[in-house]
Amino acid sequence: MKGKLITVEGIDGSGKSSLVQKLGERFKEETDKQVLLTKEPTDSWLGDSVREGLKREVDPLSEAFLFTADHIHHVRETIEPALKEGNIIISDRYSDSFYAYQGTTLQGELENPINYLTDLRKDFTIIPDITVLLDIDPETSVKRIKHDQIKFENKKFLKKVTEKYNSIANKDTNRFIRINANQEIDQITEKAFQLIKNQLDL
Length: 202
Ligand SMILES: Nc1ncnc2c1ncn2[C@@H]1O[C@H](COP(=O)(O)OP(=O)(O)O)[C@@H](O)[C@H]1O
Ligand SMILES: Cc1cn([C@H]2C[C@H](O)[C@@H](COP(=O)(O)OP(=O)(O)O)O2)c(=O)[nH]c1=O
Description:
Mean pLDDT: 96
CATH topology: Rossmann fold
Helix content: 40-55%
Order of helices and strands: EHEHHEHHEHHEH
CATH class: Alpha Beta
Structural class: alpha/beta
Distance between the termini: 13 Å
Number of domains: 1
Bound molecules: adenosine-5'-diphosphate, thymidine-5'-diphosphate
Largest sheet: 5 strands, parallel
Strand order of the largest sheet: 2-3-1-4-5
CATH superfamily: P-loop containing nucleotide triphosphate hydrolases
């Protein structure tokens, strides 16, 4: 029995964490499968190192490898075993965050950052069965953020990340579901839930 990997993506403040919680509740109500909620950066010490890096000035290539160490750990320790068990996994961020954010921080440093980053991970990542991309204007998403802002949480940067997300999603329309995040959370949840259920035949 093979499980399903669902990922939720979008810029900071787009509503990912809220959606993951609500989707988790919906799937628990409607299926007899185990539902596992997870996230990147992870809660492990590798995730702590990533969060430490987010508070510091660090060169973007080193930072990309920190994110990648955390991702490998996440795939091996959490994703692979849960898929083997037949679980439904919902991850709050995953590799598309990496391609969109590090694709932006490495712009100008590498010739084609997204190709480089995709190639870097191709031998050990597991591609999600479906990815929900929350569409929102950075002006709106930044206003929603209540904690002290970390380095990526500014409109100019998030505009560039949005362009990267759009270009990644446009190349993989079978995997991506795009939802307008400027609606009530319950509406977003219901739309995402129905689309995922239909597409994955759950
Ligand atoms: N659909 C929505 N409409 C209005 N506010 C929202 C919505 N979804 C989330 N929020 C609020 O916006 C803030 C950021 O949401 P969160 O789910 O943490 O986003 P992310 O995980 O993408 O950073 C939180 O205060 C949350 O309550
Ligand atoms: C997983 C991942 C996150 N990030 C960034 C996005 C966020 O700005 C930051 C922390 O992620 P997160 O805690 O999910 O932030 P938020 O809840 O505000 O969306 O790390 C990357 O740059 N690359 C990655 O591969």
